[in-house]
Amino acid sequence: MSLSNNDNTTDIPFKATRIDQIRKPRIEPEPVPELKKSISRDDLIDALKKFRLEKSIAEGEPEFIVLNNLVLIDIADKRPQTLEALKEIKGLGEYKAAQYGAEILAITRESHP
To answer: pTM for the complete prediction?
Structure first.
């Protein structure tokens, strides 16, 4: 490469190419395994409230007798995955765990990542 002091010209020893003519090697992305998305706490509470309403109508009992709001919130926060974990929820004893446990666990398992 030579530069002359008299003018502002430069000898470039390589061929200029357009940027869109430069090809990069194509890298195929690896497939991402499909993950079950976790639903939000509020959506889980809504699903549990819907379950509670259905049971309330079927049993002819007020909703708060079936499961009160604090129990639903605690279930949504802890997202139990086993019957033993569900029994640890304050306000949900042996009877209600046996009566509703399988259905509640199905709802919480759907919401778990």
So the answer is: 0.65
